[in-house]
Design a protein that fits this description.
Keywords: FAD, Flavoprotein, Oxidoreductase. Helices cover about 50% and strands about 15% of the residues. The protein has about 375 residues and is an alpha+beta fold. It has three domains: about 5-125, Acyl-CoA dehydrogenase/oxidase, N-terminal domain (Butyryl-Coa Dehydrogenase, subunit A, domain 1, Orthogonal Bundle), CATH 1.10.540.10; about 130-230, Butyryl-CoA Dehydrogenase, subunit A, domain 2, CATH 2.40.110.10; about 240-385, Up-down Bundle (Butyryl-CoA Dehydrogenase, subunit A, domain 3). Bound molecules: flavin-adenine dinucleotide.
């Protein structure tokens, strides 16, 4: 338990939901090490998340979902990530994408209603596949080499996507492709059963191994005309609050590391000391540093989420704040895990302690969007515009 949790939660429903999330998170923590080691997707975790209604949290109420605000969504993300970062990041993509479609109205309403029905009643999972081997981060605006060609009322899609999180568990893939006839970039909805769709098990990474963010290969995949969901706008993209699921996840990992180090310090008493290391001033200073980083990151993130939820009219102006939250929280999380490992010492490197996994997982945050350099560019531009 992080002592400052209470400050962020005040209504009964939030507390109830967080209690369920806490129970799930503890179960996931028990499985995290093995899934990480084997690079295995946490199918059991997702079975339980579905049973508890956690894959419909952001579906609109009118379609049977929880209609969560951004703030409440982040509380859940942070809590699940305390147990297993890979599960939280995977869940965050699914719930975040649904939240984004809900709030941006960018899909045809009938299509969205149908997908919501399948999520609510069948526990279906969805994610966006935008990254390609040579495209780099889609946040930089490069055009996909994946192509879509219209043939009568059918789209024919060919391409190669990388970093497809939840690959073996997805029911729907939202694929970005350049439309051959117009040069525009479209988003296409492709069901997992589509002929020509194949997952290649390429995901063998340092961290976030259980997200199974494998490659997606599309060879002459045929989908109906209405599979085209939206066209990417030429102008500056709208700020996207849902992406804060990413920093929330890394903050949860940092919180787990901080709590582990504090518990360790209470018990560990080397021969050279008449008391546990928790009484060593330098250890206390390090804990204080971690807690200041935690407070800074959490209050900033939840405050921006609060503004997003309560002042929808100001969302268009919040791009810089959202990017700054990602930067501050992700980098603070990395510092906190580092500090936790310094407190624990050499044992933090050992596989039987979770810290070395936190250390590997938290690094992945640097490579989720937006990258730090894009945030600096954004803020620099704003300052001189
Ligand atoms: C755990 C994890 C899960 C992910 N899940 C998904 C997912 O589900 N779906 C998905 O689509 N993607 C996913 N991604 C991919 C992610 O969004 C990025 O696309 C991916 O990490 C590549 O980003 P990058 O910054 O390395 O790429 P790049 O943009 O190629 O950056 C690499 C380097 O090149 C430099 N660079 C490249 N282009 C430019 C430029 N134009 N100007 C200046 N500098 C440049 C960068 O500064 C950086 O130093 C995931 C990534 C991770 C780590």
């Amino acid at each position: 338990m992080f002592e400052y949790d209470d400050l962020l939660v005040n209504d009964h429903k939030q507390v109830q939901r967080l209690k369920i999330a806490d129970t799930l998170s503890k179960l996931f923590a028990e499985r995290a090490s093995q899934n990480d080691e084997e690079g295995r997707f946490p199918f059991e975790n997702f079975k339980e998340l579905k049973e508890e209604g956690f894959v419909k949290l952001t579906v609109p109420k009118k379609y049977g979902g929880g209609d969560l605000s951004l703030y409440d969504f982040l509380l859940i993300q942070e809590k699940i990530a305390e147990g297993d970062g890979a599960t939280a990041l995977s869940l965050g993509w699914h719930n975040g994408i649904v939240m984004n479609i809900r709030d941006s109205n960018k899909w045809d309403e009938q299509k969205f209603a149908q997908i919501c029905y399948e999520i609510v009643n069948e526990g279906k999972l969805i994610n966006s596949c935008a990254t390609e081997p040579t495209s780099g981060s889609p946040a930089r605006g490069g055009k996909p080499l994946t192509s879509a060609r219209k043939d009568g009322n059918v789209w024919i899609i060919n391409g190669h996507k990388t970093f497809t999180s939840l690959a073996p568990a997805l029911d729907y893939f939202i694929v970005t492709a350049t439309i051959e006839e117009t040069g525009e970039v479209g988003e296409f909805l492709i069901p997992k059963e589509a002929d020509g769709l194949r997952i290649e098990k390429t995901w063998n990474t340092l961290g976030m191994r259980a997200t199974r963010s494998d490659d997606l290969l599309l060879t002459k995949v045929k989908v109906q005309g209405d599979a085209l969901l939206s066209i990417r706008m030429q102008q500056k993209p709208e700020p996207q609050g849902w992406l804060l699921h990413i920093p929330a996840c890394y903050l949860g990992i940092a919180k787990a590391a901080r709590n582990y180090a504090v518990q360790f310090a209470k018990k560990y008493q080397p021969q050279s000391l008449p008391h546990p290391i928790s009484e060593v001033p330098e250890v206390r200073r390090k804990v204080a540093e971690m807690d200041i980083d935690m407070m800074k990151a959490r209050h900033f993130m939840y405050h921006v989420a609060y503004l997003w939820d309560h002042f929808p009219g100001k969302r268009k102006k919040m791009g810089e704040e959202l990017a700054a939250v990602k930067y501050v929280v992700t980098n603070s999380a990395i510092n906190i895990v580092d500090m936790a490992m310094r407190i624990v010492g050499g044992q933090s490197l050992m596989k039987e302690h979770p810290l070395e996994r936190y250390y590997r997982d938290v690094r992945a945050g640097l490579h989720n969007p937006p990258a730090d350099d894009l945030t600096f560019m954004k803020l620099g531009q704003k300052a001189f515009s």
